[in-house]
Design goal:
By secondary structure, the protein is of the alpha+beta class. It has helices at about 5-15, 35-50, 60-65, 75-85, 90, 120-135, 160-170, 220-225, 235-245, 295-300, 310-315, 320-335, and strands spanning about 70, 75, 95-105, 110-120, 140-145, 150-155, 180-185, 190-195, 255, 260-265, 335-340, 350-355. The strands form four sheets. Strands 4-3-7-8-10-9 form a six-stranded mixed beta sheet, covered by helices on one side. It has a two-stranded antiparallel sheet with strand order 1-2.
């Protein structure tokens, strides 16, 4: 048989016991290089969702052991993918990255209107990608008879794109150091690309129907599941299709190309009269482009520091939504906003403020 086929079969045969994610970390890497806040947040979400029993020992080492990220006393590569928080790891793990781009056209030969690349842990990269989509995906608004509030519908369904991004981050091939997950938005479609091909006999067409879940990185996928990011049992692709149907989007397509897996989304049919060349650009009509949550938060903070609850109240929300938490964490990570320092550092008096005088557009 061809050498590539032989190697593929050998890797799949050894997959149960020997994988990149369950190999020990590079020499010199320690638990101190991980994001403790993100680790504790995973436990909180897992317990709240009933995917993890309440635990008594909340020290980081005990949590990592419980999440199968420590084996025989050694920290595993999967822990770096999930919780890396040290810039010195960037040289050792360059593949923990994501590329985000908005093209002015229908292919990669077109100019960029926005092009970003981030390095970090998988949870942080997912938030970066969601923030990018908030900045670039137009939202159509309409008044529905019998309803007091306007109904907004984005060009691409956010739940579907989030699921596809999460799948790309946890199922990708991490053995290629120079690779990264990528999101490319064109005038006529949105593509999410995951390095690595499908394995265990799976083909793109199989993803369109109920299928057995065979994650390439089961440890990473297991933590994503506990945190409530993905679902198990091969239902993710089916949910993506359902969310596209609910948003009146054509069914997405999956394809393998050049050693990577592509999922392609197409614009909602509900945005009518908009030329494809205008999709993703600022729209002059306010009814087509309401102020984003990110912009609202920054505008509020230009008046002075505010706590999470105060921001939520000003936005007219009874409680802090998950989307608001994502935006706040993203803005902190980008250095746009920062925490104030009250007399008691971890107290509820802690507030957010614009950092170094930055304002919207910085």
């Amino acid at each position: 048989m061809p050498r590539t086929e032989y190697e593929r079969r050998l890797i799949e045969r050894l997959h149960a016991s020997r994988r990149w994610e369950n190999e020990p970390v590079a020499e010199g890497v320690t638990i101190g290089d991980l994001d403790e806040e993100e680790i504790q947040l995973t436990v909180d979400n897992a317990v709240r969702l009933g995917r993890l029993e309440p635990i008594k020992k909340r020290d980081v080492k005990s949590i990592l052991r419980g999440l199968e990220l420590i084996h025989d006393g050694k920290l595993l590569n999967a822990a770096i993918v999930l919780y890396a928080n040290s810039e010195r790891l960037k040289v050792l793990y360059p593949q923990c990255s994501i590329r985000l781009a908005r093209f002015r056209g229908k292919d990669r030969l077109s100019d960029f209107s926005d092009n970003r690349q981030y390095w970090g842990n998988a949870f942080g990269l997912l938030r970066r990608a969601e923030s990018f989509l908030l900045d670039h995906v137009p939202i159509a608004g309409r008044v529905v008879p019998g309803k007091m509030q306007r109904e907004d519908r984005p060009l691409y369904p956010p739940l579907a794109t989030r699921e596809a991004l999460a799948n790309a981050l946890c199922h990708r091939d991490y053995t290629v150091a120079g690779s990264s997950v990528s999101l490319a938005m064109y005038d006529d479609r949105l593509e999410i690309v995951s390095p690595g091909e499908l394995h265990f006999g799976l083909k793109p067409e199989v993803l369109l129907e109920p299928h057995e879940s065979k994650p390439w990185n089961p440890i990473i996928a297991g933590v994503f599941y506990r945190a409530g990011i993905i679902e198990k049992w091969g239902t993710g692709t089916l949910k993506i299709i359902d969310w596209c149907r609910e948003g009146n989007n054509p069914e997405p397509q999956w394809k393998e190309q050049a050693g990577s897996l592509y999922v392609i989304f197409f614009p909602s049919r509900d945005i009518k009269g908009a030329e494809r060349k205008d999709i993703g650009k600022p729209v002059s009509q306010p009814e087509l482009q309401p102020e984003s949550l990110r912009e609202k938060v920054i505008r509020l903070l230009t008046e002075g520091p505010l706590s999470k609850s105060e921001i939520s109240k000003n936005l007219g929300q009874k409680q802090i939504s998950g989307q608001l938490k994502i935006v706040l964490k993203s803005l902190v990570g980008e250095g746009v906003i920062a925490y104030t320092i009250p007399e008691k550092p971890k107290s509820r008096l802690q507030k957010y403020k614009l950092k170094n005088g930055k304002s919207l557009g910085s």
